[in-house]
Amino acid sequence: MIDFFLHLFDPAEAPTAARGGALSGITGWLHLASDMAIFFAYAVICALLMMFLFRQRNLPYRRTIWLIWLFMLACGITRLAGAAMLYYPAFRLLLMVKILTAVVSLITVFALARIFPTMLGFEINSKSHRKSIEDEERLRRVSDDFAEQRDKLEQRATQLTVRDRRVRRSLESSGSAAVCWDAASNEITWAVGLKELLGPQTEIADPAQSWSQFLGAHECSQILSAARGAIESNSELSIGLSIRCADGREGHFSLRARADPLSAGGRPTFTGLVWFVPDSVPA
Predict the structure, then answer these.
(1) pLDDT score, position 40
(2) pLDDT: is 58 or 39 the higher one?
(3) Does domain 175-278 have CATH number 3.20.20.150?
(4) Which of 74, 119, 121, 183 is placed for a possible disulfide with 101 were both Cys, Cβ 3.0 to 4.6 Å?
């Protein structure tokens, strides 16, 4: 092996017709094996590329790709002819093969040089296309997430609607209503079933707005006083009144509520339940 590298540039083993063109010993076999391996690689690549070209008929620059295929095939045949020269030194045949390979190589170079600027633009367009695909995929994921959140919100809204109906049904069956109001102004901020319980039976669509909508001035002032007392004593508000409703019904009005802890430091609010027991059912 050391002797091989020491005589790496030695021309003494050049093939000659007198020696049949063969190199002596291991050197000849290495020349032959290398040339055949290169030819085999070119042949396999050309076969795969040809299969690809026949299956993909809408490729851009199809003719140029065929030229590249022909160039690789010519290079492989040149290596095969070079291997044959070791044992059959027909150097004119080898020269002709090299000339044909050179012609094909130059034509391929010119063809590639002509389309190379366009190929650079095609690469940029490919990057833009990939970015568009990534953006579309990102938008699709966002849309899927939005649809999932929307479905959850719709499901939650359905659950709240069912719960609200159940609460209303429970309040109606117990003859009561739920209410939240501003203890400083007697303005009602939220109520469930209050107007159905105390208001005119033909006007239940409008929401409850104030205690004065259902009670007289005296009863409203009593609720204000009871609310102030409950706040000062930090206790539950509980009051019972005899009232006359707007629709003419008379009966006993009961209210039990607690101050809302969330309103500390602001306007005091109370949340609780209202009962109304009529003295008699009007005919």
Answers:
(1) 92
(2) 39
(3) no
(4) 74
